[in-house]
Structure formats: C-alpha cells, structure tokens
Amino acid sequence: MSGPPPPPLPLALAVYVGADAVPALGSELNVVCADACGIAGDRPDRIVEVAAPPAASALALLEQEAVRHRLGGGGAIVVWKPSVRIAELARQAGVPLANAPAAVARRLENKVHFARTAPDAWLPVPPTVTGVAGPALGEEAARLAPPWVVQLASGYSGRHTHRVDTPAALSALLAGFAGRSCRVGTWITGDPVTVTGIVGDDAIALGVPCRQLTGLPVCTPYPLGSCGNDFGQPVRGEAAVLSVAARAASWLQREGHRGIFGADLVVAPDETVFCIEVNPRLVASVPLWNLAARDRGCPSLLARHAAVFQAGARPALPERLGCTWSQLILYTLGAHPRPTILESGTGRIGAGGAWERHGPLPIAGPPPGDVALVVRRRAGPGQEAARVLLEGPCLDPAGQLLPHLAALVQDLRARLESR
C-alpha cells in the first residue's frame, strides 16, 4: 500500500482480521482481509480488502503499518488463530486482541499434548500412543488394534491425518515423518460429530451437535479431511456427545482458553463417544452459527466471542445454541483453478443440481430460503476453493451426500477448476 495512511475505521464492536471475510458472514463485525470473496459490505468501510496475496494471513496483514493505523483508536480485533507476533502488533496498534493467549492456544491444539492430557480431564480418547516418529514409536503403536490413525502434532483440515491398515504401511508412514512429534491411535468406526461452543470466565455455552462431513472425495483430496457441517439431522447419542463436549469445554476453561472452540468426536455404533481432538480457536462452522443467531435476532457467535474479551465484562452466555444452517466446503482437486468463471452470490439449486445465482452475497448473509455460494479469488492445489451454505441436511442416513447436492458439487467443480 502506498500514499498517506487512510483514516482509522469506525469500529462498531470489533474487526475481524484475516485472509478472507468468511468467518464474519452473518455477523456484526467489520472486516479487514486480503480476499473479501465477493462478499458485499452494507457500507463502504464495512469490508476493507487490503492489497495482499489472497492467502495472506492475519499476521501478514497486521505487519503492514497502514493496516495497523486503520485499526488504531478503539474496538478490538479478532483473528482466526493467535500468535505472539500478532499480539505484539495489536499492542503496537493500540487495540486489544480478542483471542486467547497464543501460548494457551498453541499448547491446547497440539494433538500430542491433547492425547496425553485428555484422560486426566475424563475425556474418552481412542487407544493412543505418542512420541517422535520412528521405529520405536512404530513398535509401540503396533500393539494397538489396527487400523491406525497417524497425526502430526499440528495440522488443519485433515491435511496431516492419515489412516493406515497394515503394519508395513504404519512403519513406512512413520519413517516418512521421522523425527517429528506425532500421535498414533486406533481407528474408531462411527459417525464423525462436531460440537461448537464458547467459553467465558464464568459460563460455557454449547451448540447442538452436527454431523461432520469428512473425507468426501468430491469435496476434498484429503481422505480424512473435514469438508463441511450437517445440522439438518439429529446425531446419534446426542446426550452422551454433549456430556463429553461439556467436559472438553471445562478442560479448556481450566487451561486458560476463552472464546470459541470446536470439539471433534466420533460416535461408535454402540453410541460410545470418543473425543478425537479439541480446537481452541475459531472453527469452520462460525458463519453458520452467525446466520442462525441472525435469524433469531440474537448477537452472532463471533460477536459473543469478542464480548468475552471486553475488559470488565461478564457477558451472559446462553446455555444452548441452536443452528439450522449447513455447509459444504470444496477444496481444489486439480491443478488449474479457474475462479473467474464463478462468483460468490445468493441463489438456489436448480433442476439437475445446477447452481442458479440470484444476486450478490451481502455480509448479512443469504436470506432464509436462499443458498449462499462463497468463491475464493484464487486457491492453490488442496486449498479451499468454495463453500455452499444452505438450510437443512447435506447427508442421507448412510452418510452420503444427498443426490441434488452431489450434482451441485459436480456443477461447481466444472466451473471452478479444470482437471
């Protein structure tokens, strides 16, 4: 950015700073981002798109002096994932950072730390071993019942999560990760489920559980990758799921986390619930919760998150959050994304699953009854290219995409990328 710095933004509540505007969809927050994803603000200063690479993180944006100047003077900033450097830049800008301390978030999201700590919090994890990848860990892991799930200590959207079915494959994968901290656990067959919630100083609110869309080949190249949330149907063992999620939230609260979190669980066929991991940060379902709150005339989940960090505030959190919106997330499968062929908007799913655009996508989100399509300006191989937000279910009882949504994904794929 060049020229004189722009005047500070008028901050109504807080500003979401990040690579894109998607987490703020349906919320009251202003946005500073690298890619607005075609989401339209309701006033000129509501969404500020900064000259930066589309995948630029909050850190890359805050490193720019002009961005810090825009943010100075009041309010707070919210980022997807905090870091020590982000906290320092926020301090330089003179604005509070409405996220848990980076040291807390990093420790709690570490999958190895979680696996070692969870049993003391009465969180039921699958049989698991942890350590440095290599022959010794392989021998220890081989004593667990196969198949196995191998995870690096840190990762996102299932990019570093692998299922292996044979001892030879396990040894080969650990050899490839040699020297890196990882977790190996027994694979649990069942329904993947997510619970989103928010932790305050004196209260915890849990959302209704949703089916997690995982590893759908038409959506993601990652066999265990997360690719959406289905709030359209009740989950099996809901009472047990919420009980485990409440324990996870209490553990986070004791460990110093505040704000939004997500708990990933699996419900086995006998309705035994296993806690796979806990994400102490904003999660992919945030815009769905924002839209659900909007429909009820309530503050958005993102606004509630920001309020947790207001000095001296003890915001009252609802005991239970409800949601009727679902989403499909499409990652690039080919090597040649073509984002100019498709643009974000509101619309409907037409005959044969074809996408029919009605008009622009406002920051307030699609009106009830409409479907939203969010398209990223450019997505490299394996990165998120687009997402569809809609009311109702995505999956049938067998866990497969409903036919009209499977057809929609194929239609969007044909316009998003060539393979």
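That was protein one. Protein two is written in the same sequence-then-structure order:
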Amino acid sequence: MPEIKLPFGEALKRSFGFAFNHIETFFKISLLWGIIITGLDAWADFPLLCAAGDESCIAQKGGSLNILVMFFASISITVSYLIYVIKRTEYQKWINIRLEKKDFKYIWAMIKLIFAGMTISLFIGLILGIIGRVLGLGGVRQLGTLFSMISFFFVGMFLSRYALVFPAIALENKEISFETSYKITKGNINAIFWGMVVTSLPMMLSNMLVAGLYFALGPENWLINFLFSFVLIMISLFNEVLKASFLAHIYQYFIYFYNRLQKKDEAV
C-alpha cells in the first residue's frame, strides 16, 4: 500500500482552529467535570493547586483521589470530543458527564501501549547499560537509567504510529486495530509525535503562567484559591481537547485516504 503523507502544518492548523472555534462545546463536555474536580480539590485543601508549585504537596489529603478523578475526566472528555469532531454530534445541554464501556476500552489500550513502551525502553536501557559497563563508562544502574530515559523518548515516537487506535475506539470502529494503525501511518512518525507535542505546549505554558501568578500573589483567601484551582483544572482539560482535536483530524485524514486506496485495490 502506498504511503499516506500527513500534511503536518495543515493538520495542526485545523486542529487548533477547530478547538478554539468550538470552545462552547469544550465547556459543555467539561464544565461539570471541572466543578467536581475543583470541589474535591477544595475539600482536600487544594493539593492540586499546591502541586502546581511543589510536587510534594500531592501527598496531602485527597491528592490521590483528585488525580484519579482527573484521569477519568480526561478520558471521558477526550472520547466525547473525538466523537464530536468526527461525527459532529452536538451537545444540547450545558452539563454533560459520561463514562461508558468505550472509555474503559480506551484506558485499556493506553495501558497496553504504555506497558509495551516501558518494557521495550527498560530492556534497551539495561542492554546499553551493560555494554557501557563493559566498556568502562560507568555503573550499570546509572547508565541503565539514562539509556532507559533516552530510549523511552524514541520508543514513544515509534509507538505514535498506533495513535489511530484511540479515535477508532471512541467511534467503535473495530476495523482499525493496532496492526492496521501501524500500517496506515507508515512514514509519519515525526508528524504524529511532534503534532501531539505541539498541541500540548500552549496549555502547558498557560498552566505555568497561571500557577506562577498564583504563587507570586500568594493568596490565602479560600475563594481565590478555588478560582485559581478551577482555572488550572480547566486549562488541563482543554489541553486534552486540543490533543483530541489533533487525533481526530489525523484520523479523518488517514482513514479517508486508506479507504480510497482500499477501494482502488479492490477495483483492480
């Protein structure tokens, strides 16, 4: 099958444009999640807000629960937004919250991919660490850790070829398996991987700026803490929407040309 070349710049432009032009939909599918997470954060004395400046704060009361709820919220919002972008399913109500079977399939696919990436990275890091030790470059543990970190980056790039599986799960398209995604995305590792990185940068920077402003002000007022916590949480959730927008747009692009090539092959 001929390679399908993803237009990197156009994919990013469409992804950002769609997300910001449909900001109302983002609030419809994330507002209730944001309120719930902020409420939990307030109940636990704002561990997520504190962690924005000091990661050790996450050990406070309720920190683990907040992270868990945030994780499920991110999955729910991502799946909902993927469906919205691809199917244009409109959300009529302003309060929407859902967790369905497909969300847990999405999580399971993530776990499999992360586990595969970690296993490969640790194995490569261990082998390179042993080689380095034999050559007298340092301790096995230190070299193994360093090489594992480096290899995890490149393994992550390689695994980006499986990205189409996630929109397929959201759409319940069983035709697109890990194997199929890998085949379709041949030659597009850099475009997909760096696209995911670029779509994460604006919200990461926004999060840092808001967190920096909060700690510069050093507020102790409960209401101000609540508002800053809510803003930071919503920024994090919008980050999931941006990434979902990119995934949805590249999915549409690849599947469109994949289906065309399939029909062409059948006609021959």
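DSSP finds ten helices and no strands in the chain. Keep this in mind for the problem set.
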